Amino acid sequence: MSSLKSLAKDTAIYGLSSIVGRFLNYLLVPLYTARLSAESGGYGVITHVYAYTALLLVILTYGMETTLFRFSNKESEDPDTVFSTALKAVGITSLSFIVLVFVFISPLSQAMGYADHPSYILAMAVTVAVDAFQCILFARLRHEKRPVKFAALKLLFIVMNIALNVVFFVVLPEITDSPVDVGDAFYINLACTVFITLCFAGELKTAFTACFDAALLRRMLSYSWPILVLGIAGILNQTADKILFPYLYDGNNVNKQLGIYSAASKIAMIMAMITQAFRYAYEPFVFGKSKDKDGDSREVYAKAMKYFIIFTLMAFLFVTGYIGVLRYIIGSDYWPGLDVVPVVMVAEIMMGVYFNLSFWYKLIDRTIWGAWFSGVGCAVLLAINVIFVPRYGYVACAWAGVAGYGTAMTLSYVVGQRYYPIRYPLGEIAAYVILAAALFAGITVSNAGLPPIAAVGVNTVLVAVFAAVVVRRDFPLSSLPVVGKYFRGKRGV
Questions:
Q1: Is 421 exposed, middle or buried (0-12, 13-18, 19+ CB in 10 A)?
Q2: Torsions phi, psi of 250, nearest 5?
Q3: Statement: residue 187 has pLDDT above 60
Q4: How many distinct structural domains can be found in the chain?
């Protein structure tokens, strides 16, 4: 239980930074959707370019984050040498990438549909290269269990980003009476990324003081390349729809439709916050726990999975129950896309479950399995996009995510139970899923048939029902600090 408490504490810190950060970052959504109308397609351009960014970040880190955790926890390896080797390797490849983009900027920008704005692509490329380098620095903080500095730097980035966006998208256009430039979003991101990297003075000193071990790098690459394949497939599951949509959609106003889909999906990203927060804490926790000799590791993993699913289901019900309020995050001309929010959230839950399941093949050093699972899931997602997007538009994108993640999740569970069996409490998990599904049905009827205020009231009761069941069955209120003493000795709390 102490292990779970430690995991919960770190998750809370990472989660606070993630949730607060995402919330602050949400302020950019109403800003962009207010200053860039759906008809202009400006938000669609931002979405499209950043989709490439996410894919490139996975390629340029090539699994070195997870690899750093694995090798830093091996008794035969020096953590500083592992960190230095990983950082220098990623730094060299990132610098090489920047040079290549500079050389081929004209054909690249033309191929991506931005021949008139090559600076967009150049700014994006430099940003993602610096960000890849930065990922190893943040991984070092996670390995050293320094969530406070991690959270502080993440929040600083977001605050700076928002402040500069307000200046360039609101203040300056009002003062100078000049039109808004979509490219400013990319230039601001680049400036903030470089600044945050400079805040790692101590970590950079350690990296460049420690030696670079070529033999170690070969072993690390042998471990990481399947993770790279897994990561590419995983990120394609998240971004392929946004990358391919302009090439698949047959209707008019492609950037408008992509902007609507992306803006609506932002509301569903609270699920991504929870998943990301859990991942930040869970990855070093698992590899550290694997060294314990107490034999309870698998039981801890099983309990962690159950609690993860419980809280993601709670988030799902909260977002769908208060969609009438949360929709004001985006401009009203983007509201037609709100119907896909529940679908996108289901896909995010499946992605989170898949991530939690993925540790069995990392712990036994069989990362090739992850490449296979993610590859199959990605193939399913791509097939559904290619077949159905021309006819159904962005709705098909949302359901393709469910199918892709659902496939990868199922395969990982089935194969994992053979090679690294864990007794997950499937009965308890299924009961919560069924309860959440029934309450969601009630929320759907409420949203469709009642005035917004009345719907919020009814939905509050439905969400409270789920919370009450969780408290009654699984949440130990007696363990809470300060107030916990008032619940001790009471069964079920």
A1: exposed
A2: -90, -20
A3: yes
A4: 1
